[in-house]
């Protein structure tokens, strides 16, 4: 999992990526749980969960390995995902109950099986700027940065012109 809402699933053996690309919605159940799952017992759904590449590693040595599936997630309310909380939310990817994995693996299907039917990963602090609310909040914070810089500059100039001392500027900065 990365902070830009991307991640990857890695199998321990090469899999039939053509078959997986056609059947991944039938195979996986994807949801997330927030930090207060113990009290509300809600599995939260994602707005979107799309696989971007099948069988290719991303990064410096990116190449085809038939074991890695990269994905992108979209949260309905990314500003509610574990921000400013020391505990982290978790993403769960489960293999659906009753799923038949005979076509999944390359080679002899009777020799291979899925060792893990559920996987969970910590969701890091997210700033999904594809979301309109998150983009708006970022624009507001950038604007407020310049407003505060202007206020400090105006106060500094006014106190310097009046020759009264700069103590109010330092107190203002301290309160910030």
What is the radius of gyration? 24 Å
Indicate the low-confidence ranges by residue numbers: none
Mean pLDDT: 78
**Class inferred from helices and paired strands:** alpha+beta
Whole-number tally of structural domains: 2
SSE run: EHEHEEEEHH
| Helical run tally | 4
Share of helix, binned: 25-40%
* Largest sheet descriptor: 3 strands, antiparallel
Describe this structure in words.
The protein is an alpha+beta fold. The chain folds into 2 domains: 6-122, no CATH class; 132-175. It is built from 4 helices and 6 strands; from the N terminus they run E-H-E-H-E-E-E-E-H-H. It has helices at 17-27, 37-40, 132-162, 167-175, and strands at 6-10, 28-33, 48-56, 64-74, 90-95, 118-122. The strands form 2 sheets. A 3-stranded antiparallel β-sheet has the order 1-4-3, covered by helices on one side. A 3-stranded antiparallel β-sheet has the order 2-5-6. Strand 3 (48-56) and strand 4 (64-74) form a beta hairpin. Helix 3 (132-162) packs antiparallel against helix 4 (167-175). The chain is elongated, with a radius of gyration of 24 Å. The mean pLDDT is 78.
List the helices and strands and how they pair.
Layout: E1 6-10, H1 17-27, E2 28-33, H2 37-40, E3 48-56, E4 64-74, E5 90-95, E6 118-122, H3 132-162, H4 167-175
Helix pairs in contact: 3-4
Short description:
With 176 residues, this protein is of the alpha+beta class. It is built from 4 helices and 6 strands. The radius of gyration is 24 Å and the shape is elongated.
